[in-house]
Amino acid sequence: MEFWEKTIGFFWGGESLALLVMVLFVWAMLFHFRRDERASLVNTVGFFFVCLFGQFIAGLLHALDLARAAAVTHEVFVIGAGVAVIRLWGQLVFRVVLPAVKLTPPRITEDIFVIIAYIAWFMVRLRYAGLDLGSILATSAMITAVVAFAMQDTLGNILGGLALQLDNSVEVGDWIKVDDISGRVVDIRWRSTLVETRNWETVVFPNSQLMKNKFMVLGRRTDQPVQWRRWVWFNVGLDIAPTRVVSVVEDSILQTEIANVAKNPAPNCILMDMDNKGYARYALRYWLTDLTPDDPTDAMLRWHIMTALQRAGIKLALEEKSIHITKENEKYEEVVHHREVLLRIKTLRRVELFSQLTEVELRELAERLRYSPFAKGNIIARQGDVRSHWLYVIINGDAEVFVDLSNGKRRTVRTLGRGDFFGEMGLLTGAPRSASVIAKTDVECYRIDKDVVEELLHNRPSIAEEVSHILVTRRAELDTALQNLDATGAHPDLSQQRYEILETIKRFFSLGN
Ligand code: CMP
User: Fold this and answer.
1) Which atom of ligand 1 is nearest to the CA of 385?
2) Which of 90, 234, 306, 394 is least surrounded, with the fewest CB atoms within 10 Å of its CB?
3) Which are the contacts of 191, defined by CB distance < 8 A and separation ≥ 6?
């Protein structure tokens, strides 16, 4: 009985209860607030209980009258338990309390405080046990030299990390580039800085490396939002005027909302080079606002450039060697052309407006269409526009017709798809565009120019009648969208409207009765 009393008496020394209470309290707080770090919490508390068990062993040794061994074992495990307590307190203060009062110190601050607390605790316990580590270190030049030498790298990293933080040269969340590695800084620790790349790699840079060598912080500029300039290259033949290429590309890009492309500074297209390869080299320069999707955003812009150039009938230049390889003979071109015309006729047959045309008329029309692709987000027609009166037939994709209301909001009138046409209101009556049309997906269209429509109407005036029906219905829908009226209630005399529209078309195209 006496044996156990002795054991417990020694084990349950003055500090044990205090440490246990502290651990349980802090652990409970952290367990509640830091759900994502529970595994590490369990480890720390596990370590604490191991130390507690060690102290119990010390109690046993004491009861066995092994006083010296008991004292040393006890001290070692008390130090261990204290380390666990310090670690938990560090987490509670730096990850729960300070964030709660809107302070988020970098991780390195926590690390350094915790390390200092470890050292202080270690010294306090040694002194308590009768050893003054400070004076031993101070009097033993040899030990000091060895420790300093061993710590050289670590100290370099700690000081490097601190300096990086203090002079704000890099912060958590910054994108940096070191040699050919670029990624986002996710943590700055006491020894190293962690950088996550776009390829899901985590690169660990020793802080001293970042201190000693140059690195680039991407997209950062004083007093400006984070955005990073990128270049998208393309080539066009020297026979096309650069001013035309630049305006075609810029007009299309500036009109379109493209995800992660900054509005300010706006993207711009410039002629970068005219080398001896026979083509001019252009770059579209833009500022990327979210630095993660760099390649996907470049790709999106390439697609916008391609479609804008295609609509304008401008071909991208090929390298000379590929021109030789793909040089097509006339017969082959004829076959391709024939196939394309058949495809166009098939599409035109689906269009309500052209249902009365004969095979010959359809073929004639098919020959004169212009292939016009649009990238998702392109504004194909803009409400109020008085220029560019073309009629479009959709081959593929969805386009949304919408109107801007006087209160600044926009309202969708209708979504058009394959076989639908639009742009007829402006084209046939000479009025400004009644609505805007935006590509909801990538959209492929055929564009029909005004002179082609004019010829068609002269040859087949009945098309004007057909279209006036469609126009009346569309107008009614538009008015409903614009004024929130009940279409049927607000437009009682549809036949009168139809008559007026038909007269306008006839006047506009000088058609006889
Ligand atoms: P336009 O006015 O030239 O330009 C905008 C186009 O949107 C218009 O021609 C029509 O082709 C189209 N549009 C307007 N209202 C409707 C509607 N109610 N349904 C389908 N298309 C419409």
Assistant:
1) 4
2) 306
3) 154, 157, 158, 161, 206, 207
Residue 5, Cβ density class (10 Å: 0-12 exposed, 13-18 middle, ≥19 buried): exposed
426 contacts: CB under 8 Å, gap ≥ 6: 381, 385, 386, 389, 432, 433, 434
Angle between helices 450-459 and 462-483 (to 10 degrees): 130
C-alpha R_g of the chain? 38
| Digit-coded pLDDT (tens) for 133-166 | 666 666 667 767 777 777 778 888 888 888 887 7
SS (H, E, C) 61-75: HHHCCCHHHHHHHHH
Q: In angstroms, rounded to a whole number, what is the distance separating the alpha carbons of residues 339 and 473?
A: 36
Q: Which domains does the chain have, with CATH numbers?
A: 2-150 (no CATH), 161-218 (2.30.30.60), 228-311 (3.30.70.100), 353-509 (2.60.120.10)
Q: How do residues 87-111 score in pLDDT, each as one tens digit?
A: 888 888 888 888 888 887 777 788 8
Ligand 1: residue whose CA is nearest its atom 7: 435
- Reading phi first (left if > 0) and then psi (alpha if -120 to 50, else beta), residue 484 is in left
pTM for the whole structure: 0.71
